[in-house]
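Standup, Tuesday
Yesterday: got the pipeline producing structure tokens again.
Today: sanity-check two examples.
Blockers: none.

Example 1:
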Amino acid sequence: MKIILKKKKEKSYSTGKGLILFLIPTVVYLLIFHYLPMSGLVIAFEDYNSYQGIFGSPLAKNYGFANFINFFNMPNFWLIIKNTLVISVYSIVVNTILPIILALFINEIRNKHFKKTVQTISYAPYFVSTVVCVGMIFAFSNYEHGIFNTIAKFFGGKPSNMLESDTWFSTIYVVSGLWQGLGWWAIIYVGALANANMELHEAAVLDGANRLQRIWHINLPTIIPMAIIMFILSVGNILSVGFEKVFLMQTSGNLGASEILSTYTYRVSLMSRIPQYSYATAIGLFNSVVSMVMLIAVNKIAKKVGDTSLW
């Protein structure tokens, strides 16, 4: 008996060593690319000078908070915050609800070949690059030959240059993002539905429940915990709207709705003739702190309300 237990311990120990070896590359990656760069956040509190370096530059005015004060006093501060929140909240609502609906729909398909076809068609756009997607948006919304304006003319409407308007920017951004990611996000919920209790379905059928009632009372509660987790993660990135797509979609006519925190940070740092690295770092730190606070707050609320949380 002792020999058997000893062998089991040795086997579990050797297995644990193998798993640790697999973790080492990930840990090294996180240390080099995520934790070591955090030392550069100190320039948010400095009047950074490239000649003096990160740790040699003088402290900024107002006890190091001058860059933050300048950002809060900026004339466009509330406009940028509003644009960021509008796009982010719009995306969170749409990208949380519709993938759940699609997953429930796919789960109800009984023909395996048709089910796989729907899944493939729905998540194929996810592999289209952001640059190609934005190029398609510009082509479809072209004032003279775009498909949107062609349809509008066919029904007697007037053509309009959608990407030169503040009105349409957030909708185009969210809808195009939904087209790209809807099927991919739905995969998570389809996987969660595989854990649905089939005995409950059988009992519901015996009790006379129809398909919609079984979806509402059995399938939906099965994926709600996963939906809450995804929602919490989304709220944690509420101010971190994707930079690449917004920047590529920006035109002189839609800056009133498309200028967000990430694009503004890029403009005052890498695109500026006199890069303001300290100012840009302060904006990035503000973004990170707000996101962390939101993540912790929403996680606590979710834990108290539904006993589902990240930790």
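Example 2:
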Amino acid sequence: MNPSIEREGFSQRLQQALRNAEYSPDSPTQLAREFNLRFEGRPITVHAARKWIVGEAIPTQEKLRTLAQWLGVPADWLRFGGEQAAGAEGGGVPNRFESADVKLIADLQRLDEHHQAIAREFIRLLVRINRKK
């Protein structure tokens, strides 16, 4: 496939995922800031984020995985397109996270380990209560 077509396709999917997660697809500053909050490697620059948004570059696989996790989309879909992976059949798992879910997960990741453990236990408790209904 033509590299420029691949970059353009990635750019379109990235912009769509940003919109779905209620982030601006036109703000490389916001993209860089939010990405760097989640990425454990070397931070990206606003210039690098702009290149992703406008289709001049595709991130490395490691960065792509971080983007996909943050935005609640499959990494393969973000990189290559096609259909988004469906959730487990009949398991009640959504095909993709809603934007509020993505933000909740991002908030959870910002907590220290102790508070993350408390939040996870609370969610497990709510799930158990909900199953009994």
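Quick observation on example 2: The radius of gyration is 16 Å. The chain has one domain: 3-83+94-132.
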